[in-house]
Please model this.
Amino acid sequence: MRRLRGPAAVLAPALLLTGCAQSVDPIERLGKKAAEGVRPHATAPGRDYRHWGLTRPLARPPAPPDRPLVLSQSPPARPLAGHPAAPAPPPPVIDHVPTRDPVVFLTYDDGAERDPRFVDMVRELRLPVTLFLTDSIAAPGYRHFARLRALGAGIGNHTLDHRAPAGLPYAGQRAEICGQQDRLRARLGVRPRLFRPPYGSYDPTTLRAAADCGISAVVLWRTALTPAGLTRGLGPGDIVLVDPDESTDVPLRERTVRVLRAAQERGLTVGRLEDYL
Model:
């Protein structure tokens, strides 16, 4: 290698330093920008609460209880050898969770509404929701509900065909509930613990069939969002039904925002129902 002489020897170190500056590790460069208060383009912020129509961020819910609340009676005693097993105790019917935590619980029925923007909303707000699905209604869109489940949405049972259970014989009620348990296991990989009877209709036979299908709680609602607004004011532990709306063109995400605003006005946020039951 020839040794550089004269001006070239003076320029070489400067060129070498320039080359080093240009070859700074890109990860290091991002770190310097962050330290200088410049947000790297790759981590630009996504949509925030304002994009979804809220005036302030949705508060994070408190840490869930160490164990779900005990809502049903103790299980029956273990049968003696040679005797048939005792029937499962009927699950409790609830419309409200007894908690002092400042949370309400958002629930949705049927599965007819499959707005992809609602998926974006759940993801970006980290919104806990529970979906009670009816197979005859939700079946064309199980991929949509799989995306919501991947974001943490709870999946509940709402029967196969959306028939009012009360008054039906045991065999018919069991087929509706257990059949949907099997369908949801096959399509979404979950066998729900929570069941909502269509129209809120149930009788003692419903509770017996639900218990035999592995249901641990029958979930109704304390208040519902209708086109006219909430049917009653919100309080801690309330289970809210964001009612399917076939009378207007208001998207599901906008109806959900109405509930979120009402909750924030009362100092409440949204909890995950499955954490409490």
User: Anything to note?
Assistant: The chain has a mean pLDDT of 82. Helices lie at 7-22, 26-35, 116-125, 135-138, 142-150, 170-188, 204-212, 252-265. The first helix runs from residue 7 to 22. The chain has eight helices and ten strands.
